[in-house]
């Protein structure tokens, strides 16, 4: 008590000599109210030191919005050499809002720091207790990132980038918004107890964790899935935080989904699009969950003329000589259990990424089929339409495209229509009240502007040996490249190119509707990599108006709906939609986490997990 009283007196004395408090610099908003001003006698205890400066902690505020931590930017070795953790220092310099990148796609907000400092060490041997997140009042919110994420889908609302944090500079509401929560701790020393990683590391060995605090969207593996919150607004998983490069030069461990780690103490720093914790030293891995993945329990008798099992798998820039080829073949056999028909995406041409005009993928597909056959005795056939060279996006020269593998002893293309070319548009006509495709297989409206530099959907009509028919569309919608970071300046974050993806879905929905117009009872299955979560509802509206997404239809627990892990989120980019006729019969779907449950990111055969489903045609 006595000690605290004297501390208060001591700080009051400093303020009489025009000292500036760290809390005055940090304020209650994202940007410093003193930005651009020269300040003097900013005092605090050094909590952490790196190559580019050090962090100090001053007298705390009773207002949780106001941080009492601050970064002092300097690369001067003479300053860095004289300053040690535990020193009480007095700093003068310029309050600066610094963006770690000028790349507009990174859409950084700025971090508050003191630049051009002069530093006086006043005394040594002080200690600062870190703020333990998850106790007392410092518990991160679990739903929203920012008050600026307005719209019915919160952070996934369209339009996005309707405002920017640095223009509005909102007053922090740490209890409600994740960015505000982490901003209210900017520059502070914090501890995360019992961290669990919720993703693989990025290429800089940085990784996302949640600590010992309440979370929502937790899946059975320990990751955080994108789900809808209690208010129906998509949950942005703001309770996860990214752990950056350790300040002492140690190297972060190899982590994966569900790995538990030793406690992490570090400083909160905004950089490269996110609020980071920069650990004082690298944590240690305590436990790694087993990477044994059970095979699917979705199977069907190959002689059953009504039930069809299907696989759906984005095999990630798959070329004929790819080391991942035998791994994918083994997954199809041992985990997907050789389904009757497989929707593949990202099949490359016969010489992979060599950009020499080759577009055929028959060697790529034949190599995969041979590898599956030698493991299982099951010999698939394939259906594909070669794209026009370099017209469909993806890795340069790879000419990625969708293809089907199918088991001809069970199911075959309906004969009587020629196979389409890359540029021919498929159409549907009525043959005595039965929908008939002009091309089989064929591509949907390939010259439409929505498909420029993107994969055209591959449509086909099939029949089982018993004569039951099925229309399919194999999709690979435009990727999210160019999107801004979830904790970036643009609010809601830029979802690139959401208008184009929406148009792509609309063209697929138009095609499906043209079949339903002739036969409202038609069996139709649309599946593939949509590069979008169902929670971005506007993108899928045209399709979900007329079809049923299988995870929703079959009540897969929302937290288990994921095929991809990116930043802090386990998310579902790969979807299957069925027509009303199919929805009224037996259906099933399972995502098989053969890739995203690996212990090491390099052990994945693809960045996507495959899916197995089942439908009943008759
Ligand atoms: C968001 O909009 C602002 C204002 O129009 C613009 O300056 C900025 O580049 C946009 N951000 C991104 C990431 O597109
Ligand atoms: C298959 O496994 C899922 C869990 O992944 C379970 O919900 C479902 O009931 C199982 N189905 C069968 C037919 O065993
Ligand atoms: C691929 O197609 C070419 C041209 O039709 C043919 O000569 C070759 O034998 C095919 N290769 C395989 C493995 O099917």
UniProtKB/TrEMBL annotation:
Region feature (Disordered): 480-499
InterPro entries in the record: Endo/exonu/phosph_ase_sf (IPR036691)
Coiled-coil blocks: none
Signal sequence extent: 1-19
Keyword Signal among UniProt keywords: yes
Top-level taxonomic group: Eukaryota
Keyword vocabulary terms for this entry: Signal
Protein name: DNase I-like protein
Organism, as annotated: Gymnopus androsaceus JB14
